[in-house]
Design a protein that fits this description.
The protein is mostly beta strands. It has one helix and 24 strands.
Length: 298
């Protein structure tokens, strides 16, 4: 896991362009992602949250902060970005902000860390990970409820249109099988493993129509590739095949494209492809840094 100073007026202009993408009918949706590192030291710069348009233009840092900001995701109406920010104690908490970084609001205040937020399609609930376990809460941060309380590691929740959650977990995993993909109802019932349990599978993302789940897997050996499967784990189809490795897929709102992170150019960058795996195109060109966790604006 997965750098510059500019004149204020230029930054404001670029931010206006970037954040205007996708706000009008038919406009291309914006993509939010995190980036960290530097040319001289891959871990020398703390992660920040960035936005760009769907063609990879107008890349703007919207957090500009000494500290760690990770795991961004759009609200269903595209009006807010939720993300995890580490405080002075080292614990991460969930925050909301506008797409330009303004109107910052803290949602969680736990003694441990919270990360990996995902909004339900109706905007009423947020799934997230707290102390490595899957939780849900109301969109205003109230009603925090654990869905799983056992001692396994859970991560990367994603909602279906009908209120189910897909996520990765190390329950039942061993050896080369480090994590599997599970589906659970929004009330914590119906826990089911899907996919290839002999492989390591991770970073699942449910399509907006609920028909397919994109995910990363090493089921064919070697590096991780992006696959699609039905919600019951059937009909898997591999979409990527390069030697660098790929992961962290996120669907476009209409289901026609998938944005993802790739190490194919020896530097983790954001790519986009059609949902059948064709026309894989690099979006970011931030050399010397690592770009992760892209999420498409609804």
């Amino acid at each position: 896991m997965i750098r510059r100073s500019i004149v204020l007026s230029a930054a404001a202009f670029l931010l206006l362009l970037a954040c205007s993408e996708g706000t009008g009918p038919g406009g291309p949706p914006a993509i939010v992602f995190m980036s960290f590192g530097s040319t001289t030291s891959p871990y020398g710069r703390d992660p920040d949250i960035y936005v760009m348009d769907s063609l990879g233009r107008h890349v703007v840092n919207v957090t500009h902060r000494v500290g760690i900001d990770v795991d961004p995701a759009w609200s269903p109406d595209g009006a807010k970005i939720i993300f995890s920010r580490r405080d002075s104690t080292g614990a991460g908490h969930l925050f909301l902000m506008n797409p330009d970084g303004s109107d910052l609001t803290q949602l969680t205040f736990g003694t441990n860390s919270e990360w990996g937020p995902a909004w339900s399609p109706d905007g009423a609930k947020i799934a997230f990970i707290g102390s490595s376990r899957l939780y849900v809460m109301n969109a205003d941060g109230t009603g925090i409820t654990p869905l799983l309380t056992d001692a396994f590691y859970d991560d990367r929740p994603s909602w279906s249109p009908d209120g189910r959650i897909v996520f990765l977990s190390n329950r039942g995993a061993n050896g080369q099988s480090a994590t599997h993909i599970y589906v659970i109802n929004g009330d914590g019932t119906g826990l089911t493993v899907i996919g290839d349990t002999s492989a390591t599978e991770e970073t699942p993302s449910w399509s907006a129509d609920g028909r397919r789940i994109a995910f990363a897997s090493n089921r064919e050996g070697g590096v991780f590739q992006i696959w699609l499967m039905n919600p019951d784990g059937s009909s898997p189809v591999r979409l990527t095949s390069d030697a660098g490795g790929n992961g962290e897929p996120s669907w476009s709102p209409d289901g026609s494209k998938i944005v993802f992170a790739s190490f194919r150019d020896h530097d983790v960058e954001i790519y986009v492809m059609h949902a059948d795996g064709s026309q894989q195109t690099r979006l970011t060109h931030m050399l010397g840094t690592y770009e992760h966790w892209p999420h498409w604006r609804p």
